[in-house]
Input
Amino acid sequence: MLTVAVLAQKGGVGKTTVALGLAVEGERRGLPTVVLDLDPQGSAAKWGDTREESSPVVTTAQASRLQKVLTAAAQGGAGVVVIDTAPYAMDAALAAAKAADLVVVPCRPSAFDLDAIAATVEIAALARKRAVVVLNGAPVNNPLVGQARDALAGYERVETCPVVLHQRIDHVHAAGVGQVATEWEPGGKAAGELRALAEWIYGEAAEGGLVCGGETRGRAQDGS
Output
């Protein structure tokens, strides 16, 4: 079972949008997917409540029970678990990172967000897990993306995903009806970017031996 933790200690960076997009695209790849909502605000859970489709499964969880919930998900046949976390919650974020195979860090290409990313990178480092930054909510045709990439290159323990999610209204419309952009407007630019992100994330997981075809296989983690 592949476990992806979506972390950011700063709020407003689009963690839930990324988490839900990866989950829906995991299902599309034939991987039974579960979303664990660790955020007390419950945005992912509320999205699941408004969703007409029965998958992916979305459930709330507490960091203290995370391992038990993950074990139950694996026993229930889950191929992917995506953990949506809360900002400003160090202990819960660390628990999610330790439980994950891969840490995904959404970040907007702004000075404030880039300055705040160090805390999240440190969490991934403490958990000794691979961390990938996804530039999210980026303005279209703007030099900020290149500047953000240059800034992120200064971090030794994190890599930057080549796929950028731009600020597009389809994400907003989709969330309001329990969908993601690939479902709301499959031929739209937001959908294309989201599909590309999922292809890259799941492709990287496959190359790392974490997911293979429609099945997943475990891998011993450093420090586990």
About this structure: The two ends are 16 Å apart (CA to CA). DSSP finds nine helices and nine strands in the chain. The first helix runs from residue 15 to 28. Confidence is low (pLDDT under 50) at residues 212-224.
